[in-house]
Amino acid sequence: MNFLRFVSAGLGAIAVVASANAAGGALHAHGPEEGWAFEGPLGQLDMESVQRGYQVYREVCASCHSMRMLSYRNLGEPGGPFYDPEYPNANDNPLVKSFAAMDEILDTEPNDVGDYDYRPARTSDTFKAPYPNANAARAANGGALPPDLSVITKARHGGASYIYSLMTGYPSEEAISTVEIEAEVEAPAEGEEAAAPAGPTTETLIDPSRIEALSHGDHHYEGTLVQPVGQYYNPYMAGDTTAQWRGDPRHAPPGGFLAMPPQLTDGRVSYLDGTEATVEQMAKDVANFLQWAGEPKQSQRKSTGLAALIYLVILAVLLWFSFHRIWRKVDH
């Protein structure tokens, strides 16, 4: 009996996965063409890109997304993007201090009259949150709760590649059109006056055949997607587009809808190092920054791991020769 229950549960899980795949799922996330410098056991983060990514986070992402697991001092610690050997204690790093002082946070200590004032953040403080709590965040974003980005690359399948694909995957203006539709008026019941016709409303349509990310697959999507009000289509967002698809229901486009509109446009950020701020460049940089944020000690971990592996290889060779030396006169 238990075996039959196990088999039926497995078949049910397979059916759920199959139905999800049939509904479209999401496109496989990809990184930039040149790949990621941190990939592989010897890969290291591109710290210049991480520094630029912090600027993108501050100027673009921080208005909605928090990073509650990071403190300002982490930016100046060994392995951090703004580490300076002259300041082994990150709390003394003047650049990190200036970053912290740009934000004002509510002091946890009351003043002389018992009120709580705002003060410039210190290096020991966690990154400033854009909203005081989750309810305030939902109220400001139409009911959607912006996720905390501290470990977003660990929490999403694809990691940094998912961030890069999502930020660059929104449909271009050529794929989006807005049309007016007449509201349907119900016939009045007997003895009632006819309701005044409502004015025309609009709906946003998306042509998936004009989305470059969808033009490389085996399917040709004939139809349009109706974008819900307050939602935005992205082929890399997990979801189901069947309900909004006006076309062959067996071949609905992959992806889903999310409450975050496209955030990156060419030139939105003026990089301090003079790098051209294209959408792809900003997406790559912020993905590198979030990759570092998810594991600030990854560079030290890889360096220590490499040294440990070399030590173990040398130890294994010495043990092999020692074994044969000690037991050379004993038949094996």
Automatic annotation (TrEMBL):
Residues 48-167 form the Cytochrome c domain. The keyword Ribonucleoprotein does not apply. It is found in: Membrane. Keywords: Heme, Iron, Membrane, Metal-binding, Signal, Transmembrane, Transmembrane helix. Residues 1-22 form the signal peptide. PANTHER family: CYTOCHROME C1, CYTOCHROME C1, HEME PROTEIN, MITOCHONDRIAL. This is Cytochrome c1.
